[in-house]
Amino acid sequence: MPAKMKCCHEINFERPDRAVEMAQEKGVSVAQPALAHVLSQGLDMYALVGAASREECETNVEALGIKLNRYDLEWLESGRN
pTM of the entire structure? Predict the structure, then answer.
């Protein structure tokens, strides 16, 4: 299977839905838990973000204040706790 096709798996398409659900529960934007997830992955993972406005930039910075515990991370990753 080509490397490009390995990411085309149902669980990968469900992750954005879980990020939306978590954002609603935490009262934050969808980008914030998604960015917090990437930032929690360690030093060999880098988040590339963009902002079209000052508000989007501020929202990205606020993601630094979101602390995800291991259960949050597992749930975002696989849907399990």
Answer: 0.70
